[in-house]
Amino acid sequence: MYELYKDSNGNVPCYPGYYRRAEQKLKREQRKLSLMQKGSENRNKQRIKVAILHEKVANQRKDFLHKQSRQIATVYDCVCIENLAMQAMSQALHFGKSVFDNGWGMFTTFLQYKLEELGKKLIKVGKFFASSQICSCCGYKNTETKNLSIRAWDCPNCGTYHDRDVNAAINIRNEGMRLVFA
Ligand SMILES: [Zn+2]
C-alpha cells in the first residue's frame, strides 16, 4: 500500500515514514470513533480529531504525489503507464473515496499535466496488453504468470529471472514507445 509503483529501472518510490505513521494514527482514531456512543460529548471531540487528522494525511499525500510527479516530469520526456481501470477496481472493492489507496489515480493526473506543461507526453498502454506475461528479453508469453501471487519468475525460453512488476514495467515502456513511433 505504501509503494507508489515500480518502474522499468527497478525504482520503487514509497511514501515517507511520517506519512505512514500519520495514516496508521488516522486508522486507529477512526476505529476508536466507531466504538464511541452516538451523540456523546467524547464522540464529538473524537470526530473533530479524526477530521483534522484526515486533512493532514490528505495534504501529506498530495505533497508527496506532487513531488514525485514533478521529479519524473523533469527527468523524462515521455512516460508510459499501464492504463489500469482503477476506478472500476476501487468501486468493486468498495474503496471508493477512501484516502487508503496508494494514490495512483491522483499521481497519474498530476504527472500528466506536469508533463504536458513541459511539452512532454504521458502514454497510456491498454490494460489488455499482457504486460506481466511477456518476457521482456525474448518475448516469450508465459501464461502461468497470470496468477498474481507469482511475484518473480524465470523465463522458460531464455532463462532470464524477472521481478514480476519490473518486467511488466519494461514491457509497458516498450509497448508505449512502439505506439509513439508507430
Ligand atoms: Zn525470455
Task: Lay out the secondary structure.
Layout: H1 17-35, H2 41-75, E1 78-83, H3 86-92, H4 104-117, E2 121-126, E3 152-154, E4 161-163, H5 164-181
Parallel strand pairs: 1-2
Antiparallel strand pairs: 3-4
Zinc ion binds next to loops.
Index terms:
51% helix, two-stranded parallel sheet, 182 residues, mainly alpha
Characterise this structure:
The chain has a domain at 129-182. Helix 2 packs parallel to helix 4 (104-117). It has a two-stranded parallel ribbon. The chain has a two-stranded antiparallel ribbon with strand order 3-4. A hairpin with a 6-residue loop joins strand 3 (152-154) and strand 4 (161-163). The model has no long low-confidence stretch (mean pLDDT 89). Helix content is 51%, strand content 10%. The chain is mainly alpha-helical and 182 residues long. The relative contact order is 0.13. It has five helices and four strands. Zinc ion binds next to loops. Residues 135, 137-138, 140, 155, 157-158, 160 line the site of zinc ion (ZN).
